[in-house]
Amino acid sequence: MKNRYSIFVVAIFCLTVFGYSQVWANEAYLMATDEYGNNYYMGLNGDGSLTGQVPKDNTGWSPYGNGIGDFDNDGDFDYIVASGDMSVYLFKKLDTGDQFASPAAVAFWSFNYFQVGEIAVADFNGDGDLDFVLTYFWSQDAELFIGNGQLGFGDPILLPGSTPFDSYGADAADFDNDGYFDFVSAPAETEALYQLYLNFGGKNGKFTTVKIDCNKWYMGVAAADFNGDGNVDIAASTTGAIDFYWGDGKRNFSPGPQIVDPKIWNSPMDSYDIDGDGQQDLILGSYGDSVSGAADVVAALILSRDEEGRLFVADIQLLEGVDGYKRIAIAAPAPPKALLNEDPVAVIEPSELYVEVGQPAEFTAKDSEDPDGEIVSYSWDFGDVEPAAVLSVASVAAPVADGIEVSHIYQEPGDYTITLTVTDEKGATNSITAVAHVAAPQPKIKGRAIFMPETLNLKSKGSWVKAYIKLPQQYRSAELHADDLYLFDPETGDPIAAASYVRYKKWWGVYVVKFDRQAIISHIGESEKGVMRVPLQVIGELYQEDGPVGFEANGKINAYKPKSGKKNWRSFWRQVLTASWNYRR
């Protein structure tokens, strides 16, 4: 393995990384450092070309790991570098151009007998502040440093077994499109098993490590969407070549093309769209001779795709050095924090419901939302072991339901927990519960309803239809309240109108209830064949000393649409006499 003598860091202030939108567009710059800790600033001219190197502050010997990101959330990029004295130094960006504050130690790494491998910067724990992972040469363990958004970092968190034993190259991206940042680490020259280590992130900065056989060693690795399919790929550099691995966004990678150039000598690298054409390009340093033949020259490989989508090198730009030291590490700014996916929010209405066995328990999830995307599925569990029926109100399927609005019938009394789980387009889920109190069915008192007018003119502009309700003798002294009485269609179960008036006529032994005539006409609709016989049902509760009792009273009303507005007085008096006779029976 070649000794590491210097470090080059590329920092870009205006980028599209991994196919995500550019969010910083004020300035672009690169940064380099060598084995002695000398740092060099290089600007981007705005026309896709790069400037020369301007010396900056020294950070001490062997500054091997490095990274770029907006660590204080002020809108510009800062620069961090891990030095051989076990410190991580940060250059805070102050202004445009090469204006930085003096470097300050902001974190300390743990393994004093190891050599730093590389830094991968991203918001790994999803709190909106940038963090970084530090990998090591001669160790399979990495360390995670959680940022506080104010240029500070917590104590290192050990990530055991997350990298090859010998590893230099590392980069961060969302490889599986779940909204959580992942990182990749590449095997170096002395590694026994040549495997790429993919560490897939999750909530609270937890990782799952997956190994991919690559059958060779690499000194540099870059993560970006190189083939334009919307999924993150991997580029890895070895002796004389750069290999691509195409990602499918589902944790799977397949071998892609290879860029062959004998001057590529185990090059550290990263990616950035240098010329602004939407195609990710590669920026290379060198552990030996660069593509230009000099050790201190950085090469920008401008990539393009032909009509069949095949990658090729369209141009090479060179940044010449002045000191002859090798440029052995490359980094680009962290991807936008907006990449992280927020969980959807599940809402059930009502949160508590009282029904009887056999009655539909209806719930809606219409107020559920996803703050940064859309909800693609609604899954309901009604809490009974063997649901007897699920009625479809939206797109619902039995025995558990899927849909925004659902209606479920319970067959046994009890208290049931209803669980709604919503899922967004990136697979994130959220659940919430509600409660259904299911009572045993109560016996209903059966009554009879006679409606006045008995024949309803569907062109009528009147206000009311009266229902004369006759109940069994023993219930005729009970109280009825208008706010407990409703008119229903007994065939469909649809509500028609609420009662607005109720009085007890003792002489007739009936309750007189008023309902909105126009609501009834609207429910009946147009008459297509003269007079229609329309069933109606009054449902409510009556109150006695021992508590409320449910009742229902059924009847029918004639409905017709007359050809003219002239009143048929003979029919009218027939209705009155018939109704009067019926009331006395």
Give your account of this protein's structure.
- With 585 residues, this protein is mostly beta strands.
- The strands form 9 sheets. Strands 32, 33, 34, 35, 36, 37, 38, 39, 40 and 41 form a 10-stranded mixed sheet that branches. Strands 24-31-30-26-28 form a 5-stranded mixed sheet, with no helix packed on it.
- A hairpin with a 5-residue loop joins strand 18 (233-247) and strand 19.
- The longest helix has 16 residues, at 569-584.
Quick description:
The protein is mainly beta. The chain is 4% helix and 45% strand.
Strand content: over 45%
For the residues shown, what is the average pLDDT?
80
Helix fraction by DSSP (H/I, runs of at least 4): under 10%
Tally of DSSP β-strands: 41
DSSP summary: helix tally: 2
Shape: elongated
Sheet with the most strands, sense and barrel status: 10 strands, mixed
N→C terminal distance: 109 Å
Tell me the Rg in angstroms. 38 Å
Q: What structural category do the secondary elements indicate?
A: mainly beta
Poorly predicted ranges: 1-26, 387-399, 579-585
Write the layout of secondary structure elements.
Elements: E1 6-9, E2 29-34, E3 38-43, E4 54-58, E5 65-69, E6 78-82, E7 87-91, E8 104-108, E9 115-122, E10 131-137, E11 142-145, E12 157-159, E13 167-173, E14 182-187, E15 195-201, E16 207-213, E17 220-224, E18 233-247, E19 253-265, E20 269-272, E21 281-284, E22 298-305, E23 311-319, E24 352-356, E25 360-364, E26 375-381, E27 389-392, E28 401-402, E29 405-409, E30 414-424, E31 429-439, E32 445-452, E33 455-457, E34 464-470, E35 479-480, E36 486-488, E37 495-498, E38 501-505, E39 510-516, H1 517-524, E40 532-544, E41 547-560, H2 569-584
